[in-house]
Amino acid sequence: MRWFRRFDGAVLIFLLVFAAFVNAGSMMESVQRQEQTLQMTLHSGSFHLILLVSFLFALVVVPALLVAGSVSLAKILSGRHIRWRESVSTFAQAFVPLGFSMWLAHFSYHLVNGALTAVPVIQRAAKSAGLSILGKPDWSLSASMSSFDWLPSVQLLVLGLGFLFTLYVAWRVARGVHLQFARTVGLVAPWAVLALVLYSAGVWIVFQPMQMRGMMMDGTTEWCMSK
Amino acid sequence: MVYEQMSRAKSKGAIAHHLVNRVLPLIVSILTMGISIRADGGNVLWQRTMGSITVTAFTTQSPLRPGPADISFLVENNEQSRPILDAQVFVTFQSETGVTMRTEATHAQARNKLLYCTLIDLPKPGHWKMTLLVVHAAERIEFVSDLAVSEPQSPLIANWKFMAFPFTIAILFIFQQRLAWKRDATHR
Known about the structure:
Largest sheet of chain A: none
Largest sheet of chain B: 5 strands, antiparallel
Order of helices and strands of chain B: HEEEEEEEEEHH
Largest interface: A-B, 17 and 17 residues
Strand content of chain B: 35-45%
Distance between the termini of chain B: 28 Å
Number of helices of chain A: 10
Oligomer: heterodimer
Shape of chain A: elongated
């Protein structure tokens, strides 16, 4: 558990937590459209450069500003002088559940929607191994998208639980500082607001149209079937 | 050393106690929050009588919205006041723009076997005309009614329970902590 209190560990935790949201957000259609618009506006030939700059901004600049803001506000509201490195190292562990829940919610979406892709992949692997018992790979299964009305509810439940556990861990950490009730609330409030911002971003992402990676669309099915 | 081990074991026991007494009931209550109970068939859409037959239409959703809809019909012989179970029930849905969908309502799709049920995927909102054709013995009776399909519900409203639960629990937790804090202060 001591690892969680190390500063480098804390930086890695925040990186992975924000990466969960940035990764899911970057697969949204609206974000991809914005990136293309930006590329055209800047007359930049390389889309990779746009991606690199956007990811640096979203994974380094924005998190650094938000975490720094939380540290400063926590110091003001709690009235206790805590060194910023210590504050970051202590509260980073609270964000593990939220980050994990976002990764889980996002990947479960792709796993459920692209679950049938496994069938032609297994068929193809069997065929390559010389087993014809499973038949010819049916690549159309890879492009079929079933409607899972229950999925957003499950994703929201997972995100909500992550958010709740984050608040709980943050509260436990703040209680360990041994302050008065109001000051403990002041110490935890900025981190709770940061968790709320991330949770809200997660809820927004859940309801956005998502790029279907791992599924064969836009003619890929036809290409595979011709092989 | 022994004291340290004892206090560690004690704190582990306290965590387990806390998990069983507080966290577990909380998770169970969250998981059961979404369960709702409905009567057979759902809400009454309309009831019409024509000749010797009375038909009552039910829907599990109110108002109807685009997407899968469960519509059931109770066909009764109003002279003998009993349900008719050997009829054939055909339903036609027609939108204002002329989109037409035909289906048969059957007992097989109904949970309550006194009803004839059809599961239809309503593609868009607006005013639809529902024509019900009941074929029983030599009789063919047609019931025509209007069906209003509302705009799709915002996903935020549809899932408000899932979004409200963390805040509800967090607020209750803060109140509980405040009380516990006060109690501790008076004991000291």
